[in-house]
C-alpha cells in the first residue's frame, strides 16, 4: 500500500517538519541564479531593480525568466532526494508508487488525456471568443520555449508532486494514522501555495477553489491508484501544454506561447466548472481503466 510505505518506527512527524525546512532551504538556494542575474543587470547594466514580483517577471526576456524561475525546482528536487534518502532512509520509489517500479504507461496515459483536453478546450475558447486572443507565435523563441519547457517544467511539476502527494502525504499519514487527513491537508496547503500567483490578485480568492480542487483530484488519484504516476502525468501536461499554448500579462508564467489572452481576467463558472464537472469525469475514466474499488477505505480509512 502506497501511503503505508512511509510507516517506520523512526519516521516521527518532526522529521517531516525538518525535512520540509531542508527542502525549502534547497529551493531558496536554487533562487540564487535569479538573484545574481538581477544584481548583475542592476549594477552592470544600470537597470532599475524590480520593486515587486510583477516587475521581476518582466525584467528579463521571457525564456530567460522561465529558466531562472524553474531552475530553483532542480535544487528543490535534489533536496527531496537528500531528505528521503538520508533523513528518512527511504527510496524515492517508496514515495512514488507501491508498484515494484514506476509505471510509465500510467504517466503517459494521464499526460495524454489531459494534454488532449487542454488543447481542445483552448482551441474551443479561441474560436468562440477570437477577440480575446492574439497570435503570439514567434518560431525561434517558441522553439526555445519548447526545449526549456520540455526539460524543466516536468521537473517543476514532479517536484511539487513529490512534495505534496509523496512526501507530505506519507508524513501526515504518520501523524494522523488515517487517509482523509493527509488528503485534506496536502490539498489545502497545495492550494495555499498558489496564493501569491498573479491570477489570485487579478481574479480574487475564489480561484483558490480551483487550486485546492486540483490538489484534491491529485490526492484522490494517488490514493486510489496506490501511486503518484497519474498525478505526475496530469500535472506535467497541465503546466507544459498551458505554457506552450497561452500566456497573458497576468499569468504566473510569461512565455512565448502560441496565443496571448488579452481579455480582462474574471473568475466565475470557468473556475468552478473543472472542479465540479471535468474532474469527476476524469476520475470516472481512471476508475474504469484501472478498476478502482473500495473508495471509502482508500480515501478515509484508518491506517493500522
UniProtKB/TrEMBL annotation:
Pfam family, one: Rce1-like
EC number, as in UniProt: 3.4.-.-
Annotated ranges, domain CAAX prenyl protease 2/Lysostaphin resistance protein A-like: 143-241
Keyword check for Protein transport: no
InterPro entries to which the protein is assigned, alphabetical: Rce1/LyrA-like_dom
Gene Ontology molecular function: hydrolase activity
Superkingdom of origin: Bacteria
Leader sequence segment: none
Listed transmembrane segments: 21-44, 64-87, 107-128, 140-159, 180-197, 203-223, 230-247, 267-287
Keywords: Hydrolase, Membrane, Transmembrane, Transmembrane helix
Protein name: CPBP family intramembrane glutamic endopeptidase
Species the sequence originates in: Flavobacterium xylosi
Amino acid at each position: 500500500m502506497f501511503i503505508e510505505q512511509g510507516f517506520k518506527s523512526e519516521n516521527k512527524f518532526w522529521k517531516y517538519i525538518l525535512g520540509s525546512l531542508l527542502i525549502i532551504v534547497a529551493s531558496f538556494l536554487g533562487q540564487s541564479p535569479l538573484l545574481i542575474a538581477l544584481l548583475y543587470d542592476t549594477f552592470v547594466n544600470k537597470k532599475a531593480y524590480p520593486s515587486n514580483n510583477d516587475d521581476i517577471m518582466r525584467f528579463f526576456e521571457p525564456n530567460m525568466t522561465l529558466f531562472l524561475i524553474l531552475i530553483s525546482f532542480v535544487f528543490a528536487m535534489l533536496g527531496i532526494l537528500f531528505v528521503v534518502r538520508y533523513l528518512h532512509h527511504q527510496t524515492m520509489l517508496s514515495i512514488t508508487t507501491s508498484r515494484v517500479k514506476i509505471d510509465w504507461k500510467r504517466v503517459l496515459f494521464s499526460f495524454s488525456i489531459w494534454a488532449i483536453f487542454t488543447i481542445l478546450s483552448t482551441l474551443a475558447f479561441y474560436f468562440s471568443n477570437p477577440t480575446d486572443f492574439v497570435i503570439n507565435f514567434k518560431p525561434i523563441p517558441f522553439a526555445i520555449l519548447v526545449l526549456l519547457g520540455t526539460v524543466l517544467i516536468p521537473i517543476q511539476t514532479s517536484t511539487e508532486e513529490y512534495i505534496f502527494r509523496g512526501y507530505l502525504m506519507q508524513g501526515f499519514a504518520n501523524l494522523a494514522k488515517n487517509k482523509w487527513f493527509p488528503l485534506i491537508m496536502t490539498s489545502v496547503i497545495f492550494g495555499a501555495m498558489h496564493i501569491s500567483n498573479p491570477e489570485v490578485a487579478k481574479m480574487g480568492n475564489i480561484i483558490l477553489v480551483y487550486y485546492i480542487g486540483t490538489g484534491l483530484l491529485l490526492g484522490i488519484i494517488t490514493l486510489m491508484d496506490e501511486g503518484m504516476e497519474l498525478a505526475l502525468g496530469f500535472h506535467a501536461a497541465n503546466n507544459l501544454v498551458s505554457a506552450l499554448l497561452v500566456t497573458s500579462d497576468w499569468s504566473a508564467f510569461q512565455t512565448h506561447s502560441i496565443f496571448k489572452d488579452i481579455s480582462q481576467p474574471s473568475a466565475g463558472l470557468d473556475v468552478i466548472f473543472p472542479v465540479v464537472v471535468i474532474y469527476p469525469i476524469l476520475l470516472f475514466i481512471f476508475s474504469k481503466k484501472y478498476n478502482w474499488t473500495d473508495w471509502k477505505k482508500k480515501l478515509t480509512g484508518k491506517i493500522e
